[in-house]
Design brief:
Glutaredoxin, four-stranded mixed sheet, two-stranded antiparallel ribbon
């Protein structure tokens, strides 16, 4: 966990749902999921979507995975990302407490 996140008490305004597009055999997808772990512990919900289940998703994401999508805005973030980049990307739903 980075210093930026560990010193900040974070609360999420409303329901924050993210979808991680990837495949079951993708080591980068596993790494992306690990970066999301601190956010999930703070209440962010992450849904994993295997792109091999849909021709449309395969066409859209096969050369980009893993890709993280915000369900509230539709914004997408391609890997690689770290926790600080994720926090910046989610800044509008992050509220500092204290």
């Amino acid at each position: 966990m980075t210093a930026h996140f560990s010193y900040m008490r974070a609360a999420w305004s409303g329901m924050t749902l993210l979808t991680l597009y990837g495949t079951s055999a993708c080591h980068l997808c596993d790494a992306a999921l690990a970066e999301l772990s601190p956010l999930q512990a703070s209440g962010v919900q992450v849904r994993e979507q295997d792109i091999t289940e849909s021709d449309e998703l395969m066409q859209r994401y096969q050369l980009r995975i893993p890709v993280l999508r915000r369900e509230d805005t539709g914004a997408e973030l391609d890997y690689p990302f770290d926790l600080n980049r994720l926090l910046d990307w989610l800044r509008d739903v992050l509220v500092e407490e204290g």
